[in-house]
TrEMBL record, chain A:
InterPro entries xref list: AAA+_ATPase, ABC_ATPase_HisP-typ, ABC_transporter-like_ATP-bd, ABC_transporter-like_CS, MetN_ABC_transporter-like, P-loop_NTPase
PANTHER family documented for this protein: AMINO ACID IMPORT ATP-BINDING PROTEIN, GLUTAMATE_ASPARTATE IMPORT ATP-BINDING PROTEIN GLTL
Keywords: Amino-acid transport, ATP-binding, Cell membrane, Membrane, Nucleotide-binding, Transport
Reactions the enzyme catalyzes: a polar amino acid(out) + ATP + H2O = a polar amino acid(in) + ADP + phosphate + H(+)
Disordered as annotated region, ranges: 1-26
Location(s), subcellular: Cell membrane
A Pfam family hit: ABC_tran
Organism listed in the record: Humibacillus xanthopallidus
Domain of life: Bacteria
Identification of the protein by name: ABC-type polar-amino-acid transporter
TrEMBL record, chain B:
UniProt keyword Zinc, yes or no: no
MF GO annotations: transmembrane transporter activity
UniProt keyword list: Amino-acid transport, Cell membrane, Membrane, Transmembrane, Transmembrane helix, Transport
Organism listed in the record: Humibacillus xanthopallidus
Protein name, as recorded: Amino acid ABC transporter membrane protein 1 (PAAT family)
SUPFAM superfamilies hit by this protein: MetI-like
ATP-binding recorded as keyword: no
Amino acid sequence: MDDVNPGQTDRTTGKTVAPDRTGGAREPMVVIEGVNKHFGDLHVLQDINLTVGKGEVVVVLGPSGSGKSTLCRAINRLETIESGTITIDGKALPEEGKPLAQLRADVGMVFQSFNLFSHKTIRENVTLGPVKVRKKSKSEASTQADALLERVGVAAQADKYPAQLSGGQQQRVAIARSLAMGPKVMLFDEPTSALDPEMVNEVLDVMVGLAKEGMTMIVVTHEMGFARKAADRVVFMADGQVVEVATPEEFFTAPKSARAKDFLGKILTH
Amino acid sequence: MLDILDKYDVLGAFWMTIKLTVFSAIGALVIGTILAVMRVAPVAILRRLGAFYVNTVRNTPLTLILVFCSLGLLYILQVNLTDPKSPTSIVDNNIRWAIVGLAAYHAAFVCEALRSGVNTVPLGQAEAARSIGLTFTQSLREVILPQAFRGSIAPLGSVLIALTKNTTVASIIGVAEASGLMKEIIENETASFGVFFIFALGFVILTLPVGILFTSLSRRLAVKR
C-alpha cells in the first residue's frame, strides 16, 4: 500500500485522465474510446472508455462474463471490435497484416493457460520473437533470454520443454517471453487463474516486481491482494460496462456502486 | 520359383516402384502442405480453392488421373516432360507423368492428414504466436506447422503406405514397375502362387518398415502438452 499516494484521488478528475502516484497526469499509453462488441445477442463490451497512462498499473476486476477478458484481448486485437477506437502509444490498432503484427510485438500478452510453444524449449520460447520479429542474432537473443529467465527464476529449466515445468514456472516463462520483446505495455489475462494455489505467489511476485519497475500493465485478475499491493487504479466491470474506476484504497474500502459492493461482499466475506 | 528371379529383373522392377514412391511422396508432401496452408488461410478464396482441389482429386479414381495424364496431357495435348527427340522419351515421359499423377492424387490425402494435425494444435498456440508479433506466415512456419506435422505423422504414414501400393496403377500407362512385371511373368509363364508370393512379399518388405518407422516416429516426436 505504501506506493499508493492517497492524495491522487483529488486529481482523478475523470475516467479518461490517468492519475499519477507522484502527481500530474501521465502521458496516455493505451486509449480505449467508445468500444462496442457483441457475441451474438450478448453485448459484451458496451461503450467502453478507458485511458491507461505510461507506467500505470490498472487492475480490471469483475464477475465472470463481465467482459474484462474480452477487453484485455481486444487491446492487441485477439478479439475484433465493432465500433470505437483503441490506440496504443498514439497509434490506432491496424486492421490486419504486417502493421498489426508490428504493433502486437510492442504489446506483451500473458494468458491464463500460459500458451508456451509446446514443441520448443524454454529458451527457444523466449528467443523466437526477438529473432524472428526483432531480427536479433541468435546469440544476442539467447543471452537476453538467459538473463530474463534468471530474473523470473527459471534459469535452471532453460533447456527443458514446457510440459516438464510446473504451471507457475510456465507462467513465469510466459512473462519472460513477453518481456523479451521489450513491450511498451503488458496485458495479463487472468494469469494466475489456472494455477495451483501454492504457485500463485511466485507469479504475482514477478508481476509486482514489474509494476515497481514502471512497466505499463493492464491486469485482469481475481487476486485482490495484487490489486491492493500493485495497482494504481482498479477498473470494475460488470455486464459489459465499466461500472467504477477508483484507486484500490477507495475501491476496497468504500466502493461507490451497488454492483461493486455486491461483488466485494461476495468475495471478501470468506 | 527361383528361376523367375534369374530370368526376370524383379529387383529392377521394385527399384522402379521405390523411385515412383519416393519422388511422388516428395511431390505429394510439397503440394499437400501448400493445400493444407490454403485450407487454413484467412483468405476465403484460398480456402475454397484448396477444398475444391481436395474434393475433386480425392474423389477421382487414381486410374482415371493417370490415364488422363498419359492420354490427355501427354498424347493429346503433347505436354512433354522430357525431350521428345530422345530415344527413351516415351518411357521417360510415362514415368514422369506417373509421378506427377501420383503426387497430385496423394497430395489431397496429405493435405487432409495435415489438416487433422493442425486441429491437434490448441488455439492458444496461434494466439501466443500472434501476440509476440509473428505474422500469419511466421506463426504457421514456426509454431503451427511443426506441431501439425508431429500430430499427423501416423496418418501421413498411412498415406505413404497407400502411395507405395498405388504405384502399381502406373503399370497401366506403361511404367515398368513391380506389378507390371508380375503381369508380364504371368503371361509368359503359368500363373503360380510363387509369382504372387514373390511380389506380395516385395511390397510387404517395402511397406512394413515404413509403418513401423512412422508409428515409432509419431510416438517419439509427439508434442507433449
